[in-house]
Amino acid sequence: MASQLALFEQDDAAGPQGLRYAPEFISSETERELIAHISELPLKPFQFGAFEGHRRVKSFGFRYDYSEQRLVEAEAIPEWLHAVARAVESFGDLPEGSVRQVLCTEYEVGVGIGWHRDKPHFDKVLGLSLGSSCKFRFRRRGGEKWERFTLQAEPRSLYLMDGEARRTWEHSIPGVEHRRYSITFRTMKRESGARC
Ligand SMILES: O=C(O)CCC(=O)C(=O)O
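Above: inputs. Below: predicted complex with 2-oxoglutaric acid.
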């Protein structure tokens, strides 16, 4: 499952430290089931303060409230996500139950996500790609220039961002060519202040 090598087969440049990639992390059948569940969710446009993103999301466990600038509790992680969350924890060598936040996202054709780093309240970030591939781009300022790296995240693959990939590199996804879904799994920083 865990094929770090696969990351480096697709780009000569060394990827960010702390980035791992596993192609075919789940079967096509599991992918279909997960997409069916996500399609039934009451997905809402991503809200950041007064602004709305084009991607549609649903958070479980916790969600970051941009108006209040803090994490707030969200609906519990549903049972249909438990098995895949355990598999993701196992891939990341993380204790069972350490994934406490899950974000389901739908990207329609042409929709992506801008440059950002995930909120510091979270620790490790793992993402499952469903339905179609995307260019998962990384950038980091190096003096006058940007260092850049692109991971082609294929459907059914999983990526893990830890270390520098998580803390010093930003990531973004340009508008996708076919509808894509993702499930992002996040562990919590100890000092996140989230009420547990
Ligand atoms: O769709 C993805 O794989 C990335 C999602 C992401 O970067 C985010 O929600 O912060």
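The chain has one domain: 4-188.
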